[in-house]
Specification:
It is a single chain. The chain folds into 3 domains: about 90 residues, Rossmann fold; about 210 residues, Mur-like, catalytic domain (UDP-N-acetylmuramoyl-L-alanine:D-glutamate ligase), CATH 3.40.1190.10; about 130 residues, Mur ligase, C-terminal domain (Protein-Tyrosine Phosphatase, Chain A, Alpha-Beta Complex), CATH 3.90.190. Helix 7 links the parallel strand 7 and strand 8. Helix 6 crosses helix 11 and helix 6 crosses helix 12. Helices cover about 35% and strands about 25% of the residues. By secondary structure, it is an alpha/beta fold.
């Protein structure tokens, strides 16, 4: 019996453990931290051996294959030792893909991938396909394959998940954009992160499709120097494309194999240029999979987005409070500020991942009347925007930040939480940060 060792007892680790057990592996799960009770219960139910708060090398180094959770960097000692011994280390996505014959839609990108994934899933589901959504969102892909292997899988994929693939090849790959993010995991080299994102198409063939942002200079530069085997379907707000999606006046137009789909951008439920692009990407996938045009239109008109992504919370005294806690990098915040139609009080800050704020200067000059910093160390934000905005204040809790915004904001203005940073200094994750914002707003 082959031995499968799993490093990390979170969502992807437990899903892989269950799938591995079902496929006849001897499975062992090892986590350096504490495995949550909900995951322990699954391990007990399936009679899977596990340990937490340690990695027992004597057991781990006897594996035939190791699945490493995406959160564990390649540089940790146990992973280096596995590689030195020639033991294959793969991601959950790679492992699970080997056990399904289903059609896979893989979606990655620095921003917009969650919205695009949820929107694509929504359209395919309403279109009558037997489809699931997994990966970086919802259930783990491995658990989905183990328990409910639908005919179609829509996967949101992070660069960390793509780093651990060898043969994984989605039939349809979507790349929403590439902007600097997570550079702390890529030796602070943007080119390493770019290469990681493009792994999504490395095993595609001439029968597969690659849908991407045709306006993204980083993507275009990469494509000029790296030949791609799959069929290219760009989407663009700036130019007409022969195959793919583009804007014609105020209408989205998608052309695939002489089949046309059009829809006015005014009818989109989600506003802002970035959401026009998300809609183009999701609609292109849906067109490829032969979903009826009326279904695509209905979904685009009724889809109200992702929690913590430009989420309208409440209007108080004619001031709109908006939760964009999912904006953990500068590019995501750029889209948020770009979508603001009136003067805005901006709550920003957290753990800086090597941010360059200069792209935001024109938008901050135009739209931001006050900045409220919410982080342990706000010096970089204050230095970056001190010349753009007169009113910059520092706060140490979400309640304090929201109360400060309430005092500053006037009728017909916005209060926007769009941190441009990771949340780990004051919060467990961006979800907790967003929930605390919403609670504080409701208590006003």
């Amino acid at each position: 019996m082959k031995k499968l060792v799993i490093l990390g007892g979170g969502e992807s680790g437990i899903g892989t453990a269950v799938l591995g057990k079902k496929k006849g592996y001897e499975v062992f799960v090892s986590d350096k931290g504490v495995i949550k009770d909900i995951y322990r219960k699954v391990l007990l139910d399936f009679d899977i051996k596990w340990e937490d708060q340690q990695h027992t090398e004597a057991i781990i180094l006897t594996a035939d294959m190791v699945m490493k959770s995406p959160g564990i960097p390649d540089e940790v000692p146990i992973v280096k030792k596995l590689r030195e011994k020639g033991i294959p280390v793969v991601s959950e996505i790679e492992f699970a893909a080997g056990y399904t014959e289903s059609t896979i839609v893989g979606i990655t990108g620095s921003n917009g991938k969650t919205t695009t994934t949820m929107l694509t899933y929504d359209i395919l589901k309403r279109g009558g396909l037997d489809v699931s959504m997994a990966g970086n969102i919802g259930d783990s892909f491995a658990m989905q394959v183990a328990e409910n292997d639908t005919l179609y899988h829509v996967l949101e994929l992070s660069s960390f998940q793509l780093d651990g693939i060898k043969e994984f090849a989605p039939h349809i790959a979507v790349l929403t954009n590439i902007t600097p993010d997570h550079l702390d995991r890529y030796e602070y080299k943007f080119e390493n992160y770019i290469a990681s994102k493009f792994r999504i198409i490395m095993n595609q063939t001439a029968h597969d499709y690659f849908i991407y942002d045709g306006d993204d200079e980083v993507i275009n530069a990469y494509l000029e120097t790296h030949p791609v085997r799959s069929i290219l379907l760009p989407f663009s707000l700036k130019r007409k494309v022969e195959k793919g999606a583009y804007l014609e006046g105020e209408h989205i137009k998608i052309i695939i194999d002489n089949n046309e789909f059009t829809m006015p951008t005014d009818n989109l439920a989600l506003k802002g240029n970035h959401n026009v692009k998300n809609a183009m990407a999701a609609s292109t996938v849906s067109q490829l999979l032969k979903i009826r045009k009326t279904t695509i239109r209905e979904c685009l008109e009724n889809f109200h987005g992702v929690e913590h992504r430009l989420e309208h919370v409440l209007k108080i005294n004619n001031v709109q409070y908006i939760n964009d806690s999912k904006a953990t990098n500068v590019n995501a915040t750029f889209y948020a500020l770009d979508a603001m139609k009136s003067s805005t009080v901006w709550i920003v800050g957290g753990v800086d991942k090597g941010n360059d704020y200069s792209d935001l200067y024109p938008l901050v000059n135009e739209k931001v009347k006050a900045i409220i910093c919410l982080g342990v160390d706000n010096s970089k934000i204050i230095n970056a925007f001190g010349n753009c905005v007169d009113n910059i204040t520092e706060t140490q809790s979400m309640k304090e930040a929201v109360n400060m915004a309430y005092k500053i904001a006037e009728r017909n203005e916005n209060v926007l939480l769009s941190p441009a940073c990771a949340s780990f200094d004051l919060f467990k994750n961006y979800e907790q940060r967003g929930r605390e914002f919403k609670e504080a707003v409701r208590e006003l």
